[in-house]
């Protein structure tokens, strides 16, 4: 792609140079790029190269593309499956928007392609597509090549018979030692013939060559599967005449190890006592360690509960009949992940008694882990949002009744302090529900256009006091940071939470370093991140010199209620709140940590393009209590009895005439009876008929009715869902004062 792209860019650069240097008085239509040059350059690439214009038309393609994708159409209009076409459509849109896009794999017939898309041209009027075939490693071909080559000849000289068997049981390749025993000569071709025709088994399970009859010597077979997802597919068979004194077992083992080391399967040889004799690089790669770091015993790789099963299986397969099987184990370094360990007995290889196998699926495992983690986080977020919503209804009732009781008591009364204490504790619980909503990205935010250095400066004094005397706060700001759009209060909470976590990780004191930095599109491209979209960002980093986070905990730190602190020290909601606020603000957060070296959190907030932040004049208006007395007819629609009762009593005290309904259908029935109201105060989520559906029906039948929605979910999310104009919003939980103010303001709306 590099050569093709370079030529295309050079061609378009030349066109652009001609355009800029042409005398201004001469208005000549510029010729299009010379596609013949582009096509000739694209021919040098081994990938399928195509260029499409903004109308989606194919304007240039090399021969690899036209042969692989018939029809002379540009992506995404290729003859591929629906899932691949959806990926191509999304990649094209992302490339027009961000400049580049990438797809790990699409499928065309039985072949897969990786896709890269880049915007190109002087006016970015083209898309350059590169579809590179994913060359799958053909293990079967590798085995055939080795058996037919030098390694096969060396094995034959040591008395080891090697044969590759296809999935249908036919011989694909065999060395001279096997051919000589099976046919009596190594000059006659044996490939393509059924392997079973040359073998027989007696009643004791011993295996012999059919040609040698009953006087033949028994052989032992070592079966190495060449299909990593099934045991009955293609295989490499190593046969040894265990009773033949001429076989030098040490030499045989060396040749077998040489063969196993070249296969991309995780394979290892173990003796009867369960000690490693040999392991190839693929085996160590599955375990995420080096070969030199392997312990002496395979059982030391798994958790304590699985050690006995591994040891027992090795002894059983190493001393009994030459069979094979799989056991499920959990690695000590990845206890949450279950993997399959293949165990097969071997004979005739000296001390080697057992062959162990692990599938090298590190990339697949990583992808599965990321998908599982994302699914889990989304599920927990939905659960947290639902719990917070229901709990907000209870808190609304508790806080409301406290307010009503406080109106009947004066400071100094015996019950006044107790009621006030109940209300204060309820407000503390309400802050916890806000954290749950923040994690689930359903919190009500009040975003503003602001600069990150200003937010850090506002919170620095508070943070210094919270960090204590043993922790030093350092702040450094970069230049030319773009503005971001976020809730300043929530952003301050992010900084405080990260600072407090850093303090708790430094028992003996240390340094917390906060920095801001501008990150350009080129910087993002250089990072090569698969998560961070191409764009301009303002980076906020919080780094500490603490104890660090162990690798096994790093993937869990943003989960709610996960904490490594002692019982009673923290709720485990701090980092989950940070995660929710950052994601709801359109940003991205990454954590890097090393035990003993500290931790760094990087928060990328997209630069806001639009109006600049308004200048702060320094003037502050003092709050003046509103005259909340009013008149008019109000309908409260709420399915929770306790919330409905509190809201009704609060508004009746302010002078309104109030009626209630338990759901949207009951509210519509009241209007159908001829009743009319100046304002409808409604919950959003209700059984039978929800608030937005009721509101649309009311306005369709009875005109532009004033609406005030109350809910524990985020206002921004609700406004997108409701899609109604001239609607007021009251977040739960609310006090008597707050619902009175919200109703007063809604009644004043034109």
Automatic annotation (TrEMBL):
Gene3D superfamilies, alphabetized: 1.10.287.130, 3.40.50.2300, Histidine kinase-like ATPase, C-terminal domain, PAS domain
Occurrences of domain Histidine kinase (ranges): 386-609
SUPFAM superfamilies in alphabetical order: ATPase domain of HSP90 chaperone/DNA topoisomerase II/histidine kinase, CheY-like, Homodimeric domain of signal transducing histidine kinase, PYP-like sensor domain (PAS domain)
Molecular function per GO: phosphorelay sensor kinase activity
Reaction(s) the record says it catalyses: ATP + protein L-histidine = ADP + protein N-phospho-L-histidine
Domain Response regulatory: 633-747
Keywords: Phosphoprotein
EC identifiers of the protein: 2.7.13.3
4-aspartylphosphate: residues bearing it: 683
Protein's name in the database: histidine kinase
PAS domain sequence ranges: 252-321
Entry keyword annotation includes Phosphoprotein: yes
Pfam families, alphabetized: HATPase_c, HisKA, PAS_8, Response_reg
